[in-house]
From TrEMBL:
Enzymatic class: hydrolase
Signal sequence range: none
Taxonomic path: Bacteria, Pseudomonadati, Pseudomonadota, Gammaproteobacteria, Lysobacterales
GO cellular component, one term: cytosol
Every Fructose-1-6-bisphosphatase class I N-terminal domain range: 8-200
PANTHER family xref list: FRUCTOSE-1,6-BISPHOSPHATASE-RELATED, SEDOHEPTULOSE-1,7-BISPHOSPHATASE, CHLOROPLASTIC
Protein name: Fructose-1,6-bisphosphatase class 1
Binding sites annotated in the UniProt record for Mg(2+) 1: E98, D120, L122
Top-level taxon in the UniProt lineage: Bacteria
Length: 342
């Protein structure tokens, strides 16, 4: 790709600012997040050579986060990279992370901005030690007017309030996929010049699909409508759906969603009796909502199985929800199984 024809992330964001789609502060915030993702990509890419694989914690004691999950060293390192990059960035009023119990207002010794940044610093980290793609997921909200020291309650805004959302997938290549509400676009990290370069403008998810992504080992724990829905997928062309389906499950949401944004499909992490008491497995504020924004901007759909994901009224920073997202017609089909059963 010739240098002259390439559109860098910086150029794309400047063009969006000139089009009036974002202001300079939001543009610069996204640049800070992208730079942090480049640092994370370098750390992840070193693998065993970086001395950061394996579980965090010391003296044989695992470090457990608020999710009750063992933290990987790279979870902690990725979180620190994002905190450090944004602490002095000057565009945030506060930030919230999957790895931190509570949100963090930007200390008043640093310049502050009008935005709230939420992120899962390294999603899918259980895959790191087996060299499978992982990623960073982020979401940007506006800090409520007049709030200079935001608390957890100020982050509890529905997905429709997001100003920007994206993920960075650390796979064979490092890709940043971003929406600011004007389409979903993919940028590939050119390691030789250290810039993200636009490689897929205006991604579009095919409306129909023959591919589903779910952890089938949970089948016996699903609600009856989910059992029926997946049973009909597995029945193939002889069944009520009248076509055969393929299945993929990476167990890294970023990798599964990236495949769906690229070639279609439906991703689901439904309620199951193992986590029903918690509302689901995946987190609304920094997993489901940013992915829902990206997917909807690419012509897809995102639902809890009973409600549009981005209209779920948040009740907690680490709230969990059931997730169905991807090809619009297939998500609508899955929702029908649930709504008709209620
Ligand atoms: P399971 C990773 O831990 C994660 O949060 C998502 O990235 C992924 O889709 C899901 O959990 C995988 O869950 O139960 O299949 O390991």
């Amino acid at each position: 790709m010739s240098q002259a024809s390439t559109v860098s992330l910086t150029r794309y964001l400047l063009e969006e600012q000139r089009a009036g789609h974002i202001n300079a502060d939001l543009r610069l915030l996204i640049e800070v997040v992208a730079r942090a993702c480049k640092s994370i990509s370098i750390a992840v890419g070193k693998g065993a050579l970086g001395g950061v694989l394996g579980d965090a914690g010391s003296d044989g004691e695992a470090s457990i986060n608020i999710q009750g999950e063992a933290q990987k060293k790279l979870d902690v390192l990725s979180n620190e990279i994002l905190l450090e990059a944004n602490a002095w960035g000057g565009h945030l009023a506060g930030l919230a992370s999957e790895e931190m119990d509570h949100s963090l207002p930007i200390p008043d010794v640093h310049p502050r901005g009008n935005y709230l940044l939420l992120f899962d610093p390294l999603d899918g980290s259980s895959n790191i030690d087996v060299n499978i793609s992982v990623g960073t997921i982020f979401s940007v909200l506006r800090c409520p007017e007049g709030v200079t020291t935001p608390g957890d309650e100020h982050y509890l805004q529905p997905g429709t309030a997001q100003l920007a959302a994206g993920y960075c997938t650390y796979g064979p290549s490092t890709m940043l996929v971003l929406t600011i509400g004007h389409g979903t676009h993919a940028f590939t990290l050119d390691r030789e010049i250290g810039s993200f370069v636009l490689t897929q403008r205006d991604m579009k998810i095919p409306e129909e699909t023959r591919e589903f992504a779910v952890n089938m080992s949970n089948q016996r724990f699903w609600e009856p409508p989910m059992q029926r829905y997946v049973g009909d997928l597995l029945a193939g062309r002889e069944g009520p759906r009248g076509k055969d389906f393929n299945m993929r499950w990476v167990a890294s949401m970023v990798a599964d969603v990236h495949r769906i944004l690229t070639r279609g499909g439906i991703f689901s992490y439904p309620l199951d009796s193992k986590c029903a008491g918690k509302g689901g497995k995946l987190r609304l504020m920094y997993e489901a909502n940013p992915m829902a924004f990206l997917v909807e901007q690419a012509g897809g759909a995102a639902s809890t199985g009973r409600q549009r994901m981005m209209e779920v009224p948040p009740t907690g920073l680490h709230q969990r929800v059931p997730v169905f997202l991807g090809s619009k017609a297939e998500v609508e089909a899955a929702v029908r199984y649930h709504v008709e059963a209620d």
